[in-house]
Amino acid sequence: MMTSVRELQAPLRDRYKGDPSAALVVDRAATADHDVTDPFHASVSAQGAANTMLVATHRGHGGPHDAATPGDLLCAALCACHELTLRMVANLMGLEIDTLEVRVEGDVDLRGSLGMGTAPVGFQAMRVQTKVSLRNGGPSEVARLMRTAEACCVVGQTLQAGVPVEHISP
Q1: Is residue 130 over pLDDT 70?
Q2: Are residues 57 and 74 in the same domain?
Q3: Which residues pair with 101 in a beta bridge?
Q4: Strand 53-56 and strand 41-46: pairing?
Q5: CA 101/CA 135 separation, integer angstroms
Q6: Is the pLDDT of residue 129 over 60?
Q7: Count of CB atoms within 10 A of residue 88's CB?
Q8: Angstrom distances, CA of residue 59 to CA of 40, 97, 165
Q9: Residue 75 sits in the same domain as residue 137
Q10: pLDDT score of 1
Q11: 33 pLDDT band (50/70/90 cuts)?
Q12: Count of CB atoms within 10 A of residue 39's CB?
């Protein structure tokens, strides 16, 4: 039996309509225990995750790149958010996904984070490549699904709009 996103979200939508402040959440991640003398690795724990993740420095920064880098995690966050949003929106629209594949790439000039000249720090561009086919819809339904999912993808919209980042030291 297929899970009904509409059925599960209905009480939440009613609650948020009556109390918009109830819709405001805080997502979290924190570093976890790891050898702080190792300049090329860290461990992070995301809220809700059962395990910590080992993160490595990119080989372009002199690191071993033997685990996902922070940039890889940013690409993974966008990839996961886009796919989950597509799945939920398809469910809400009564569309059955036959195949779904999402890939994310991001372009970075590493000179920026190495403090070399005027090269910018950060991703200069990201691409989300999506292949989706439906059991019960054609090109127009796929296009509508894609438009709606892109508009509702939290990570994608955050990256497009930018977000202030506040650094706090005790």
Answers
A1: yes
A2: no
A3: 131
A4: antiparallel
A5: 15
A6: yes
A7: 18
A8: 10, 37, 26
A9: yes
A10: 54
A11: confident
A12: 11
Residue 27: what pLDDT? 96
Token pair for residue 109? 């000039």
**DSSP one-letter string for 40-105:** TEEEEEETT-SS-EEEE--GGGTS---S--HHHHHHHHHHHHHHHHHHHHHHHTT--EEEEEEEEE
Distance of alpha carbon 12 from the chain centroid: 22
Range of the domain at 144: 70-160
**Structure pTM?**
0.94
In eight-state DSSP terms, residue 128 is E
Render pLDDT for 68-103 as a digit per residue (tens, 0 to 9): 999 999 999 999 999 999 999 999 999 999 999 999
- Looking up residue 92, the CATH number of its domain turns out to be 3.30.300.20
Phi and psi of 98, rounded to 5°?
-95, -50
